[in-house]
Amino acid sequence: MSTDPRNDLNVRIERFLAEYPPATTERLEWLRARFDAGLAWVQYPEGLGGLGLPRSLQADVDAAFAAAGGHDNRSAVNGVGLGMAAPTILAFGTEEQKKRFLRPMWTGEEIWCQLFSEPGAGSDLAALGTRAVRDGDTWVVNGQKVWTSGAHNAQWAILLARTNPDVPKHSGITYFLCPMSDPGVDVRPLRQITGEAEFNEVFLDDVRISDDHRLGAEGEGWKIANATLNNERVAIGGRPAPREDGMVGVVARNWREHPERRTHALHDRLLGLWVEAEVARVTSIRLAQKLAVGQPGPEGSAMKLTFARLNQALSGLEVELNGADGLRADDWTERRPESFSFTGRDATFRYLRAKGNSIEGGTSEILKNIVSERVLGLPAEARADKNVPWKELAR
Questions:
Q1: Can you tell me the distance from the alpha carbon of 182 to that of 190, in angstroms, rounded to the nearest whole number?
Q2: Alpha carbons 78 and 339: distance in angstroms, whole number
Q3: Which of 18, 70, 257, 358 can bridge 364 by disulfide, Cβ–Cβ 3.0-4.6 Å?
Q4: Are 173 and 221 in contact (CB under 8 A)?
């Protein structure tokens, strides 16, 4: 074999496509074979969908299969699974958990959602009150979760629950892999300002989870959750993209196609936001290079913060650029989509949907704290709840 991993990878891809041509191979068979060949996520270990190669080579693999007409693994529907649950299970799961969950997750056979936030524990996630009580080899879980994207499509969830109320809030949390098929799981839609209900609230009533589906040690949930949240913020705001990708591209095309809408003031704003978007894009490339040799850190919080601010500013500019047309919504019918696009539908939808960008994946206020303390090294804010048992905190 060649000493250049890129050459070896190209040979593997050619052999795979010769054996499993997408045009004549059933979708699920093709996806399972791709996983087994180590061409799902090449940076993962052999036997778990990868080849132990640098993360940076994954883009080459995806491009080659896309050019060959390869089958889609429902990545648009399974963002939580692929972007958050998978790297967390890889880092903290047992060998049995990795073998059980990673393959059907990558092939799209099992869709995942995230049961973290609660009505009283959103920005202060560590204050969560959902309880898990040990009963032999199972845990009995009761509580309520909210803002759960895609729960109506999911077969599994990553779940945080309090297993010890007698210790400080960060110490008594345990991380579980929760079956959404349990009869005690009740998923209810949350209709958003856009009219869609991509989010849900989830009620957990005596949900039973096998101890085999506990991820990490009891009480270790906060540490594992931080790894998940770092991956989430990278997935939301740190994805390398081509120039004028996303909202800045939508607004730039609008500007070019409608010269009659231009003013000097709007031109000045567009140029400023275009430059900021380009700085963010280049920074995301640097972040991707860091990820190729390590794990996501607090830099992902800064990128997600920038993503939210730019999306909101650009969507607002687009509405102004469209004048009266920018106030017209195409449809406000309630729907529960499988997936959504920040740049989908019309300008009004984009403007309203962007409001959620500064909430989901960590509020902008909390992310500013993370950046100030973990990136800039500024003193942490005073905390009245430090070293206080969770059960004694005011709620």
A1: 21
A2: 9
A3: 358
A4: yes
- Model-level pTM greater than 0.85? yes
Q: What is the pLDDT of residues 20-70, one digit of tens each?
A: 999 999 999 999 999 999 999 999 999 999 999 988 899 899 999 999 999
Q: Is 49 exposed, middle or buried, given 0-12, 13-18 or 19+ CB atoms closer than 10 A?
A: buried
> CA torsion angle for 169, 172, 177, 179 (degrees, to 10)?
-80
Round to whole Å and give the CA distance between 40 and 32. Answer: 9
Q: List CB contacts of 283: < 8 A, sequence separation 6 or more.
A: 303, 306
Return the structure tokens found at 152.
Answer: 């109506």
163, HSE (Cβ side, Cα atoms, 13 Å)? 21
Secondary structure element (H or E) that encloses residue 114, with its range: strand 112-115
Q: Using alpha carbons, list the distances in angstroms from residue 173 to 86, 166, 258.
A: 20, 11, 54
Q: Which residues are tagged catalytic?
A: 232
Burial of residue 98, with CB atoms counted within 10 A of its CB: 0-12 exposed, 13-18 middle, 19 or more buried: buried
pLDDT value at residue 291: 64
Would you state the pLDDT for residue 345? 81
Give residue 99's pLDDT band: very low, low, confident or very high (50, 70, 90). very high
Is residue 311 within 8 A of residue 342, CB to CB? The reply is: yes
**Roughly how many angstroms between the first and final C-alpha of the chain, as a whole number?**
62
Mean pLDDT rounded to a whole number for the chain = 91
Q: Which residues contact 374 (CB under 8 A, 6 or more apart)?
A: 297, 298, 301
Strand 156-162 versus strand 214-215 pairing type: unpaired
Give the dihedral sign, CA 282/80/213/143.
Answer: positive
Collapse the DSSP code of 201 into the 3-class scheme (helix H, G, I; strand E, B; otherwise coil) and give the result.
strand
